[in-house]
Amino acid sequence: MISLDNRPIGVFDSGLGGLTALRSLSRILPGEDIIYFGDTGRVPYGGRSRETIMKYARQDIAFLRSFDIKAVLAACGTVSTNGLDEIAARSDIPVFGVVEAAAAAAAAATRSGRIGVIGTKASIKSRAYDEAILALRPDARVVKNACPLFVPLVEAGKIGDADPVLDLVAREYLEPMKEARVDTLILGCTHFPIIAGTIGRIMGPEVRLVDTGAQTALRLARCLKENDMLSEKEEGGCHRYFVSDNPDSFREAAELFLGGSLRGEVRHISVDEL
Ligand code: DGL
């Protein structure tokens, strides 16, 4: 007999970026209830120390767990590359970071073995993406660049393909990737798929972009299915959003990126309560 699990899935990020994973997850599993936490009061995480990132990650997960969730998707490259493994190893529910699934997709997609990785400073410094890629494809050449300005640009809603500031910043950040002629580029921060239009245009159509959140959503869905942990609802899952700063600005930027209205309420939770 198949056992079903109607508890929600918890998804978190420092801000808006995790919505790229939530969007994929709700497309693959439309019946699942999802609780999203965006730590907008403390974004960005990417320039902070590993200790601070882990402290924030523990608080974010503890907040999500107050809802009796069945699994966690850490939809944040920075958290996933800075100690999430230690947190996951001690957890009694599945905790997924975005590195492994993205590395597997990139290793499978590359023809030349030249793989680019862009992310926050903390993610690039961690070498987590390099290690995960090289474990699967030891002959790969991994070219990396930290792109710290992308996160504030996305959070400020500067995401249009015609945006001149975004275009200028992106050209500079992507230059080493073009020079190394990578054929696959991991968008190693979940904020980056929001500006995939600009990144793809600059890199050219032959370069495959790997969306870390989308790949991880697929992996999480597979895990729930294999463990008979899917919800019995086939569609109409309920989504609830919590943010540690202004809910209205979050809704506004989220709707701009999603190209439609955000399904579900957005509530404020103070960082002091985490
Ligand atoms: N979306 C995040 C990531 O994937 C966080 C960016 C940040 O807070 O600096 O790294």
Describe the secondary structure blueprint for this structure:
Elements: E1 9-13, H1 19-28, E2 34-38, H2 50-65, E3 71-74, H3 77-80, H4 84-89, E4 95-96, H5 99-109, E5 114-119, H6 121-126, H7 128-136, E6 141-146, H8 150-155, H9 164-179, E7 184-187, H10 196-203, E8 208-211, H11 212-226, E9 239-243, H12 247-258, E10 266-268
Parallel strand pairs: 1-2, 1-3, 2-9, 3-4, 5-6, 5-7, 7-8, 9-10
Helix pairs in contact: 1-11, 5-7, 5-11, 9-10
The structure holds D-glutamic acid.
Describe what this molecule looks like in 3D.
The protein has a six-stranded parallel beta sheet with strand order 4-3-1-2-9-10, with helices on both faces. A four-stranded parallel beta sheet has the order 6-5-7-8, with helices on both faces. The protein is of the alpha/beta class. The termini are far apart. The longest helix has 16 residues, at 50-65. Strand 9 (239-243), helix 12 and strand 10 (266-268) form a beta-alpha-beta unit. Helices cover 43% and strands 16% of the residues. Helix 1 packs across helix 11, helix 5 (99-109) crosses helix 11 (212-226) and helix 9 packs across helix 10 (196-203). The chain is built from twelve helices and ten strands. It has two domains: 9-97 and 214-273, Rossmann fold, CATH 3.40.50; 99-212, Rossmann fold. D-glutamic acid binds next to helix 3. The site of D-glutamic acid (DGL) has 16 residues, from helix 3.
